[in-house]
Amino acid sequence: MSLRTRFTEEMKASMIAKDAPRTSAIRMIIAKLKDADIASRPTGVEQIPEEAIVAMLRSMVKSRRESVEMYTQGNRPELADKETAEIAVIEAFLPQQMDDAAMQAAVAAAVAESGATSIKEMGKVMAVLKGKYAATLDMAKAGPMVKAALN
Question: What is the pTM of this model?
Answer without folding.
Answer: 0.74
